[in-house]
# Entry
Amino acid sequence: MGIKCRSISRGKGSGEVLISNEPLGFLGGVDPTSGEIIEPWHPLKGKNIAGKILVFPNGKGSTVGSYVMLQLAKNGKAPAAIINISAEPIIAVGAIISKIPMVDKPETDIYKILKNGQKVEVDGDKGIIVL
Amino acid sequence: MLTKEQQKMYDGELGEAVQQSMEILVAMGKIYNADKMIPITSAQVSGVSYKTIGDAGLEYLQDLVKKGAKTRIPTFLNPAGMDIEQWKEMKIPEDFAKKQIQILDAYSKMGIMKTCTCAPYFIGIRPKEGEHIAWAESSAVAFANSVLGARTNREGGPSALAAAICGVTPNYGLHLNENRVATVIVNVQCKLGDIADFGALGFAIGKLAKRKYPAFTGIKSATEEQLKVLGASMAASGSVPLFFVENITPEYNVAEDAEEISFTEFQLNNSKKELDSKEKPQLVTIGCPHASLEEIREVANMVEARKPTCEFWVCTSRKLKEEADRIGYSKIIEEAGGRVVADTCMVVCPLERMGYNVTGTNSGKAAKYLPSLCKQRVAFGKLEDILYR
# Structure
């Protein structure tokens, strides 16, 4: 089964789903050396995004967040793919320069379908989440 | 959405840097529902100070250089974190300077001019009315759109750089005439004197307007320096990329159902009070955005007549500093205990690491950012006030 989305950053990535209902900012939100979410009060604080299919509604915070995503990729701690509800430039740019596959605007409510730890593939070329 | 040539760029036929840049532009186009890419005549790139982009940004730029990135159109830089020539005299830490130079080298290798100014319009970079550009510095965006009538969205550092490398930008937002409409009318009912008044007005209205575009009535005259500070302050306290002033700006388009508010002397005074800690500054910084030659002249005249009671900097572009050196303004300023600082400003240099705690300004933008970005308490007011407190 596949969920149709819009393609934002090309490439394919698969892994376990890590879901946040809250927006995520990478500068000060994620440790670029470990991939751990460090933003105080964030529901995913303490979780590691490395190799995960990271699901969150949209980015927030500083535009330098795009560069932090590139640092994560260079350190081998980037997520395997990103799924946003509605992409904004910080995360989109970060995904593209870091070669992280990314889609947004899934046609169904993924918060009802995807569960933490579930294995899925994101196809950023075709814009599909393969369950 | 893409022409044949643009598709080639997207497919990587013109190299990896162009491909990545076109991918960024296509993604931006999708996010904002652009119908096509449009050619631009210039780009202005932000994300220059090591203080703002850090090691992550430096690595990104060096990556792009390795991929062979080159700009296709005239491209200019925002201020850096230090004066490239007098950073030692400015007491900039050496580790900071080393990284800053690496950042500037990376931009230079891509063919970007090291103008290092937030006010390119004061050094002859003045796009014409209706011209499409991709500028990133928020105050320069406000000036270009509002005072010059050019067309630009408020770009981020990477999207402006991508536009510079591809020579195009997605057609959305302020590139489209139908979006260049004010939805809040600000009826100014008080007299505005110097730059600090325009800064206080901008700071107050930016907070109210947030993302709306304001149209001002009741401003009888305004210099470019005053409009510069008005726009910069609104862009900082809100995120206003376009404003109109009746009978002054080239465009004045107001929505039929625009909300109307008034701005009185009471509000002006409140805004000034809110920005001013009332303390005596250790350092007064003039030129946010970068000072014009006229502003440098005014400061020189003022401090020649009466020596200020604190250190002071006049921040400007390299080009205008050279002008000021030649005319003799810089010497007058130095003899009065000041310094004409080029390539940088009080907000993007590491003031917090240079022993200052209280900084004076007449700009609503600097007053907004000095506490958060430089850990400073702010003395806000007109120059005669803050220089001699």
